Amino acid sequence: MKWMGIQAILTVLSHFIFIGLAFSALQSLRLDRYIVPERQGKFKLVLVLFSVALGFLCSEFFLSFVDNIRNFSYLFSK
Questions:
Q1: Which burial class, exposed, middle or buried, applies to 63 when counting CB atoms under 10 A from its CB (0-12, 13-18, 19+)?
Q2: In total, how many domains does the chain have?
Q3: Domain of residue 34, residue span
Q4: Looking at residue 78, what is its pLDDT?
């Protein structure tokens, strides 16, 4: 049971880290220059939502990749 708690903490941390990286990467594109000032609020909301979606997908890929690498040991064990 302790292992499940540790895995849950690592999963949540991974999601937050990748969401932060995605948000930072999307902000560096400076797409707000192309949005009219009246729609800046909606654009920021879309940017946050897109960052969450992209960060979650990247995090799930990373966690799945690590899990599959860990399971390779079962392939070669007797």
A1: middle
A2: 1
A3: 1-76
A4: 67
